[in-house]
């Protein structure tokens, strides 16, 4: 055996392997030719507590050779990995002893197999978080654009209204009620705009207007005034005595 094993080399390159439950575990092991006669096995653990994971003889439903019938490549696949599959795996070359038993001739340095949660769950959570963030961002942007649009419409109306007010021309005003020195005029519609137009026109004509007030009129009885003479508002304008 010592003569036959001279120059024999066994390589187990993987130090650590992470795998998710339900996936397939790949364990690599290669060896040179010229070894002593004896079996090659995959063991989980060394010593008296080891468990045979795969050997050339026997039935191992979840384990298959990567290269079938090869005498140098003893890499294996373990399908449907379970939590109890975690541990340290060794590729072992045995030598038949003179007494008919097998003894360890050479083994690899061991591959530590660890299980982690399936990689799909974190990735799905990350995708869901990103989608929620994008959705909230889109909603916020749409809300800001809507509010900006509404603000622009309001500002446009506010800017357009004085321009329209400035374009009013003086109109004939119908006297509603009043006393001497304080005439009162009826504004049938848009009273504020008419009053502003009157003030602007009076300013242009250098009239001395001291006070202008716009107030609601008291409700008048229906029988005393015709519908055409009904006033909803009045303006009192005080003019300096001539």
UniProtKB/TrEMBL annotation:
A Pfam family the protein falls into: V-set
InterPro entries named among the record's database cross-references: Ig-like_CS_Receptor, Ig-like_dom, Ig-like_dom_sf, Ig-like_fold, Ig_sub, Ig_sub2, Ig_V-set
Lineage: superkingdom: Eukaryota
Keyword Signal: yes
SUPFAM superfamilies per the UniProt record, alphabetical: Immunoglobulin
Keywords annotated in UniProt: Disulfide bond, Glycoprotein, Immunoglobulin domain, Membrane, Signal, Transmembrane, Transmembrane helix
PANTHER family: SIGNAL-REGULATORY PROTEIN BETA (PTHR19971)
Protein name per UniProt: Tyrosine-protein phosphatase non-receptor type substrate 1
Designated gene of the protein: SIRPA_1
